[in-house]
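# nightly structure sweep
# worker-07 picked up a monomer target from the shared queue
# config: single-sequence mode, recycle default, output format = structure tokens
# input follows
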Amino acid sequence: MRYGQILGLSPALMLRGLGQRLWAYRGVSSVALFVAALIMLSAQVHEILVVEAEEWREGSPMKDVARAFRLYMPMILLSLLPNYLWFLARELYRWRKMEITQPGVPILVICALPLIAILVQLGMLAMKDGTAFSGAITSLIVVIATVSFCLAVIIWRINWRFMRGSGWILVGATLALLFLLIREPHIWGLALVTLSLVALFAAMLATIATVASWAEDEAGVPLTVGLLALAVLFSAFDLNDNHFLRMVEAEVPEEPPVYERHPDATDVERRFLAWLECRPDYATTLKNGQKYRVILVAAQGGGLYAAYQSASFLAGIQDEYPDFARQIFAMSGVSGGSVGVSVFAALLHDNPPRVAGYSGCTDTIPILRSARHFQDAVDDVLQQDYLAAVGAALLFPDLLARCWPQPIVSADRATALERAFEGHYARAVPEGTGLTRDVLTRWNWRGDTPMLLLNTTDVSTGSRMLISSPLPDFPHKRMATYRQLSDCYGGGACEAPSLSTAMLLSARFPVVTPARSIALPSCNRDTSNTLLCDPGGEHARPKARFVDGGYYENSGLDTIADLLEVLQDVAQSAEVEFTDISFATSENHSPGTPARSYGLGELG
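# output follows
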């Protein structure tokens, strides 16, 4: 009789009934639909599933407890998620059963959509032509489906017999776990993979949304809409920007010597000449009637893939030819390329590439390194799940910080990502300081670590800034440098970003990693770039936001071209020839008029 009545209903009435259920159970329904759409449409989730399938193909992970935990936990949590969402819907009905209809089959299907999306994505991957591990993916699908079904039966039986009316206990336990995730997001980011965090976030968001919908209906006040409106309002008026550049203690960089042959040389020319004289084979090469070869590197953007490829390429050459790094004067990086060259430079800093009998202009003891030393270190640092670290901070503390009218610095997700890089680097290079040292004094012309030219883009003007260079300015104002925005002049100590902060400022991904804010100095210094200082008065610009260098151009070649143009005169007299190692072509852009509105900075 019941099904006959249902079939006898008009489509309009059936849609109306579904709409009423969706509204009554809007908390779990909206979360389930959002997570399912994220899984189906996100390229990052697709790449994560590929990695999971590759891990599954390698054999039983039970030999390594940590690997087993990281492999199985996402699948267990994703299998539990539909049960948990359905449990919340049933508990809401139990709390208010006189006012709303039972969730029924439509809500049950919606709760299962995230798990269905995972299975569909894996199925599409298994059927894709050329997939070498389709069998592993198929077995993974079977395991996920089987585990999910068994968990559903077990949880349903436990809930029916022992946990009836215990919804508030489970909700309280979920909120307690949320508190732990908010307090230590970087630890959870290192322990869990991204899919696990997405499942936990969905469960907690569904819990909060369910309780909020219940409170809304009881009080008759749209609490959720009000909270979202406040978050947008706080951001629009720039009240809670907690993404200011993270600083470490630094010293004012040493000034290069003045050369009588080049009395009018710019700062970058004098640094180049000082670096050139510290090359042990420079004088010998000129005596042999040959020009000295100087290498310049341009590393393009392209996410973590570009980071690994550029670092791995440079590390491979360094392992084969220990003299390689000694001939690199500068490396220009953009986005993922900045991460790659920075990791390579950090390894050079902590592992001086000396050969027997050479100490350059320093007193460093010569060291001989084993084969693949740098390549292995690059693998240890960059073959990690960094999306989990930033995701843990984004989904938990930083998201909640949007609802507070003052900056909560400890919730900054960019800082969580920087600390994750520093943590993995410390594991690969014990006692290494390459990523934590300030960017201004990490380069010295007496050593063999190349000068880093990490490119960032001013959101307001579209102009370039070199965040990592010790240069006080760049000739002809082709671009700005960090020292123009700092107080690192004269003598003594100052503050500057660490290398991990600088390289990740050059590598930003919209929404996931926010724009970094830098307080601008007053426009009263001769070396100030008028686009990057605060004129005061009605045109006051107290801070600037910087994002990925790829917003200006994505290859890093523009910076190398500007550097070559500046050095061409002294290079000719010094009998130097340049070799450029690059990966792409460039495209020029011109800076625009600075905008002075700082609202909605989370979208930058």
